[in-house]
Amino acid sequence: MLALVMTTACAVLLESGARAGAPAERYAGTDVVVAGQPFVPRAGELRAALERLPSVERAVSELSFPSTAVDGSGRLVEAPWDGPSLGHSWESAVLGPFTLRQGRAPDGDSEVVLDGSLAGRLGAGVGDTVRIAGLDGLRPYRVSGVADTRRQLERQYAVFHTSREAERLADSDQPVRAVGVLGRKAADTEALRREVEKAVAALYGDSAGGLVVASGGGRAEAEFWDVPSPATVLSSLVGTFGVLSLFVAGFVVSGTLTLAVAGRLTEIGLLRAVAATKGQIRRMIAVEVLLVTVAAALLGVPGGVGVAVLLHRVLVDGEVLPGSFALSVGPVAPWATVGLAAVVAQLAAFAAARRASRVRPVEVLRESAAPAPRLGRRRVLLGVGVFAGAGGCLGAVATGRLDGGGGTAESMVLVLMIGVALLAPVICRVAGALFLAPVTWLLPRDGALAVRNLLRQNARLAAGVTPLVLALSLTGTLLCVPLIASQGARQAERERLLADHVVSSAGPGIAPGYAERAARLPGVAAASGQLSVDGELSRADAVRNDADPGEDDAAVIGGSLVTMQAEAVPGLLDLGVRAGSLARLGDSSMALGDGAAHSLGVTVGDRVRVNWDDGGRDTYRVAAVYSRDRDFADALLPRASAARHAATPLDDTVLVRTAPGADRSAVERELKALAAEFPGARTGDGAAESQTAGQAKSGAAADLFVLLLLAMINVFTAIAVVNTLSMATAGRRREFALLRLAGAQSAQVLRMLAWEAALTCVVALLLATGVCASVLVPLSIAVTGSAVPALAGGPLAALALGAVVVAVATVTVAGRLAMRSAAATPGGLARAVS
């Protein structure tokens, strides 16, 4: 039932994401939109070509640029749900269409029209003055009007300027982001889209690949191409959650069924003794499990829907999902979940029944308790093979041959857990043997008896250890991997930075005017903004492929590119140059990271071509090759030529270095004073981590979901451990009665059980430590160069203590209840024997 609750909740959220559609907002009034990702090159020619089409009434260019308003307290007003806050020309308002609710269109460059949502957030109306942060810093504008669309903006804010002011603020060679097409009344939308596609292909030819022609629901994808949709965010988060939940549920259900069937070996032996066949035993268990699955579904599916409602509310409140995202409960998710749960349960039942049906009746009936099953050779070999494969992958991570990010660490935990489950009885037997001598010396009665019991029933020990190891390993990995990544990023930044101050952004970015003015401050030796640009790198001397002129025979890599003021780089960064010199950087030269240089097969003096995402192309000579490219960039380019190709012409960070002999604190005060004119700029120490507010918000959202994931997994595992230990303890009534006949008191038996539970937790903690170390140490070596990973000590210690408390309390309560039953009393056992 609990497994169905977890998996149904995930399935309902995933189905909701699949059914959800993010509607177009800014382009809702268009029939067809031609969108660039990010720019539309030759937009004037495209607009003229589209207006010549017979079905087109009008084509409108949509010019966009970052434009963030500031409230009365000086804080940036961020758009809802991490969406964009953009400035536009009033001419493109018809694409919404935006209609004036109050006031009039902007008549001068100092006037703006606000969308209704932003006006309400600012509490501004017609005639009021608002402050807007653009590329040249903070400027006051008078509100000439307030406009609304048919559907209120939910994922963005919009500010409309005059055409001249919008072009000035865009400050780009390619400011047009899209061209909206308004068809004639009698035009068919699909036919119009096909006409537009032909016109685009005729104008651009092979270079039309960067443009998207969309109608209907595709307009929203074209509008928000650089903003993850709610469905995408939900799928990525819940998909991981669902896989882990299914994995945990499969482990727990399998272990519980195995233990339940093992406790019925005497009954199965009796059935076999009266001529029941192996097939009949397997079918009996399969039907029983199917009935249990159906009964569990009656409670688990509604419970899962309820948990999905709760998760949906938490995710909306945490701004992981927009408020407009509706939860959709259809028939697909419940039926798929029940079917998947039935398959998992039947596979687990088949494995347990197969082992049980092979036991010979005479052997079972001769034993006073169920014998410990023996591991087959194939299972041992498979477990060893799993460990060997995981070891090879983790070794590749440690040596840098395999990237440890992107879920690799979590995947390796699951692989290692499969190996632990396969070899758990052997591992537990070895652990019990190692504990026997020290525990016997320290606790010669209760402790020694507990260890001997665990050695005799290592399968029972394995059943309790496996879910604990899984929960501890997953929790330890999910909590520590981000810490290791953050530690590596800080370490790489400390090694790379020569700057004394790092100015980061609390908004979409820092206007380039900040770096320009910071460089002129007294006491500043060098200052430059860092701006990320999208493009592809290839060798400039690549041989053209005659069969396909658009392709080259040389390697092409999609690099992470950063632009800076070329003359300021040597004073701000120590990139570990291994060839050439950063001092040789200029308007026509670049620096390449080791990885990119190796992939392209180039070195200092060679020429590299950059194919920009806006359709442009530039060629640079390699002036230096550097080794500190981790968490930085594949290529460092001069700002003078590269910045005009940026999708968002705002600096990610600004680096500032104090001149020798100058007062560092005085420079810091000047930078803070300058930040007052550029809202969102945050000054800090050069060793501090640079992180934008958007990244911090996204990280907080991810942390929220990880905490939800870990909470549900650990609660589920805790209940599974309670269930497993209770079953195992309740099945030992005859053993307890024998101990009482031998003179043991109830308190002594309970102490023995408590020590068994404590030793079970110790074994689980040691195994979980081994699993986590196997994953975290190679990752730490690869990321930080140290074999000592960063650990979330407090939460892990609390989790370990909680595991011990839960296990000891469970067996104590279950043992007390078991000893009260008639079968577990000395008199009851004597009557049964007689």
From TrEMBL:
Q: Which family does it belong to?
A: Belongs to the ABC-4 integral membrane protein family.
Q: Which UniProt keywords apply?
A: Cell membrane, Membrane, Transmembrane, Transmembrane helix
Q: State the InterPro entries in the record.
A: ABC3_permease_C, MacB_PCD, Macrolide_Exporter_MacB
Q: Which residues cross the membrane?
A: 237-263, 284-312, 332-353, 380-400, 412-443, 464-485, 704-731, 752-776, 796-815
- Please list the residue ranges annotated as the MacB-like periplasmic core domain: 42-198, 506-674
Q: Which domain of life is it from?
A: Bacteria
- What name does this protein carry? ABC transporter permease
Instruction: Point out the signal peptide segment.
Output: none
**Which organism is this protein's natural source?**
Streptomyces koelreuteriae
- Localization of this protein: Cell membrane
Q: What is its main location?
A: membrane
Q: Which Pfam families match?
A: FtsX (PF02687), MacB_PCD (PF12704)
Domain ABC3 transporter permease C-terminal: from-to ranges:
240-359, 709-820
Give the classification, highest ranks. Bacteria, Bacillati, Actinomycetota, Actinomycetes, Kitasatosporales
The membrane topology noted for this protein in its Swiss-Prot or TrEMBL record is: Multi-pass membrane protein
